[in-house]
Amino acid sequence: MDAFSKVIDLAGVRGSLDLRCLLSGSFALDHEPALAGEAPFHLVLAGRARMQLPDGEVLLLEAGDFVLLPRGSAHLMQGVTDATPAGPIRVDLDGPLPIRRNTDAAPELDLLCGRFLYTAGAGDLIMRALPDALHLRLAQGDDMTGLHGVVDLLRDEVARLQHGALAIVTALSQALFVMALRAHAQRNELPPSLLLLLGDARLGRSVFAMLQHPEKAWTVALLAEQATMSRASFARHFAVSSDLSPLELLTILRMQMARKLLVQGQLATAEVGERVGYQSEAAFSKVFAHCAGMTPAVFRREHRAVEVDG
Questions:
Q1: Same domain, 178 and 283
Q2: What is the DSSP letter of 280?
Q3: DSSP state of 293
Q4: The domain containing residue 278 runs over which residues?
Q5: CA 206 → CA 84, 198, 237, 249, 288, distances in Å?
């Protein structure tokens, strides 16, 4: 598994489809800010719409457009035909995917709405590298071929809704997230972030080493060796590419791995600490509590209870 894939896995990013919207006329749908750990997204399967963001920016969305809101910003989705009154909106819950509609005729907008759920730590590192609204226009650019294919499959599955369609669409939405990140990174100048680090061939090797061997007693000098750079050059390049120091990033990644091990419940707290580089259970517990806001024991108890209840 490459470093980028491992970070996505650590972040626990998973797609959740909420509903499909079939709308016409001058509708206006308010979306409240999302909860922590949720990043809403919209995919225009057909038609057009306007999205207004909290700062007043308005995005014109067209067929094939994908919008991700990494910080869960409130937004207003509007129709583009202001002169045509909108019919009353109702929600059809009969199928596997709820449908919000205000027309029985051919809609002016066919919109797929959902959210990506992610865990704190690695998930936050990914989301904060992105703009408040990540807008990808698939109709532009030959480098979007892969995204085109995913969207075509999504459109086809949503239209037919055969057995297993919801599982397929949910899995495709996760692929859409990863491909959207990759497309954004290729087309835009990223701010200092984990995504920028991973895109650097040499610095990315040092991050991969942290992920592969979190138990190792890493120092800046040892990480520089992984990047085949001098310590001074590595520290300088890392500072330009990241909003965290190498050891701050290492701590966040270690704690994210510790979270997964604690929830799995197969190892004692001391063993989890050893797996992520802490020889002392007390030292591990102190760092974990600082990062997670609770001790490893409380975290394990609460999150295993959530899994059982779910």
A1: no
A2: -
A3: S
A4: 195-309
A5: 57, 9, 12, 11, 23
d(CA 3, CA 25): 46
Ranges 95-99, 174-178, 184-188, 276-280: which has the least confidence? 184-188
Residues 178 and 207 in one domain: no
Three-state SS at 44: strand
**Angle of CA points 291, 295, 299, to nearest 5°:** 90
Average pLDDT score, the chain:
90
Co-location of 244 and 100 in the same domain: no
Q: How many domains are there within the chain?
A: 2
The count of other CB atoms within 10 Å of the CB of residue 220 is 17
**Cα-Cα-Cα-Cα dihedral sign, residues 280, 8, 193, 42:** negative
pLDDT for the residue 309: 45
Query: Are 39 and 179 within one domain?
Result: yes
Residues 69 and 160 in one domain: yes
Place of tokens 């779910």: 310
The DSSP annotation for 168-234 comes to: HHHHHHHHHHHHHHHHHHHHS-PPSSHHHHHTSHHHHHHHHHHHH-TTS---HHHHHHHTTS-HHHH
Q: pTM for this one?
A: 0.87
Both structure tokens of 160: 């037919």
pLDDT in tens, 123-159: 999 999 999 999 988 765 555 667 778 888 888 888 8
